[in-house]
Design goal:
Helix 5 packs antiparallel against helix 7. The chain has one domain: Rhodopsin 7-helix transmembrane proteins (Rhopdopsin 7-helix transmembrane proteins). It is mainly α. InterPro entries: GPCR_Rhodpsn, GPCR_Rhodpsn_7TM, Olfact_rcpt, Olfactory_GPCR.
Length: 293
């Protein structure tokens, strides 16, 4: 696992950065989950999905970063085949589920803003649980499909993965057998999960912005636009990185660029999500003050 070994003089700095980001992501998402679950006023569809997002962010960072820290500290920079497959399966599952969940969250905001009178009927508790269960099942199924196809491949005795954790595209590049089928499936899944979900999210926010423009109060309009801009920023970073990494699995794109893009959705997004989605929300801040007076 080459990871960040091309800069041996910066290994201590990389370790400190990854460790700090992991702790920040854990604390931020655990705090949001604790606040929402302990305050009955936050037991609404929006915050229910935020809890799911926080759990996914914890899974995503935990699947990748602890092993990265171990590899940075290790002299051999090695990872067993089973560890690699397990990490790839868990990470891909969390990644796929988060893509779907972000789309559901955009739909929830669309219903809340564009159809407020029917919100409680459309987004009932049963519907929310069903939507959450569906995205988790679909995300896990997508991961199992990719992992199963990769398990059929042959790998050379000495494998070098130019990445800092096991992810589908770099693992495919290390295979000795034909990966054409895998590459096709990756592209198809990326189009369905990535581009389709992103398109649906943009459509939802288009309707949301259209509804906001009809608001007469300047303060309410500014607040609504600010919220939409924050959400779309995180969504764009997440989707952009995933689509870039997975849409060209067989091409000769720069490995260093791939690492940066992977870091955006595997490390940066889990840290930013608690801030942008929740900690800027007055209801969450008030609940936090109540929990820790």
């Amino acid at each position: 696992m080459m990871g960040l070994s091309s800069h041996p003089e910066l290994q201590s700095l990389f370790f400190a950065i990854f460790f700090f980001i992991y702790i920040a992501a854990l604390l931020g998402n655990i705090t949001i989950t604790t606040i929402i679950t302990s305050d009955s006023r936050l037991h609404t569809p929006m915050y229910f999905f935020l809890v799911n997002l926080s759990v996914l962010d914890i899974c995503c960072t935990t699947a990748a970063i602890p092993k990265v820290l171990q590899i940075i500290e290790s002299k051999e920079k090695t990872m067993s085949y089973l560890e690699c497959m397990a990490q790839m399966c868990l990470f891909t599952s969390a990644l796929s589920t988060e893509l779907l969940l972000l789309t559901v969250m955009a739909y929830d905001r669309y219903v809340a803003i564009c159809h407020p009178l029917h919100y409680t009927t459309i987004m009932s508790r049963k519907t929310c649980v069903l939507l959450a269960a569906t995205v988790w099942i679909l995300g896990f199924s997508n991961s199992v499909m990719h992992t199963s196809l990769i398990l059929r491949l042959k790998f050379c005795q000495r494998n070098i993965i130019d990445h800092f954790f096991c992810e589908v595209p770099p693992v495919l590049k290390a295979a000795c057998s034909d990966t054409h089928l895998n590459n096709v499936i990756v592209i198809v899944a990326d189009v369905i999960l990535g581009m389709a979900c992103f398109t649906l999210t943009v459509i939802s926010y288009t309707y949301i912005i259209s509804a906001i423009l009809k608001i007469r109060s300047a303060d309410k309009k500014k607040k609504a636009f600010s919220t939409c801009a924050s959400h779309l920023t995180v969504v764009s970073l997440f989707y952009g990185g995933v689509i870039y990494t997975y849409i060209r699995p067989g091409s000769g794109n720069d490995p260093e660029t791939d690492k940066v893009m992977s870091a955006v959705y595997s490390i940066v997004s889990p840290v930013l999500n608690p801030i942008i989605y929740s900690l800027r929300n007055k209801e969450v801040i008030n609940a936090l003050k109540k929990l820790f007076p």
